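Morning run. Coffee first, then this:
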Amino acid sequence: MKFLPIVATTSLLAMLFASTAALASPVGEWRVADGTATVRIRHCGADLCGYIAHTASPPGKDTKNPDPRKRNRSVIGLEVLINMKKARDNLWNGTTYNAEDGQLYSASMWQTDEKTLNIRGCAPGGGVCGSEAWARVK
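And here it is:
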């Protein structure tokens, strides 16, 4: 998963969230933008969590993890959306883990329609942000 830098105004995001408030929950499977993985989102108590369910090629290892004891684990089953709390209709905030660089990012997710889930991640301290759109897997 790669996040591409974007610029979005608060009013644009508010308009998107307001127009999609009636959408179903993002629980289910989603293909990441580059098609390399599928993430399964499920309820984790009151929050949502997402785990890598499938990869397009043989699954790699979590080699960039800052914890050396975790670097040999498969990316299958790896939690990549962590404690996504519902902020309001169609908006969840939490943390995302990027196995490509071993870093945690603050994250938001929202749907633009039943087939599209947007993920936005920002570096700690309000650094660079990026987003991508995931496609629902039937």
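The first strand starts at residue 4 and ends at 5. Good start to the day.
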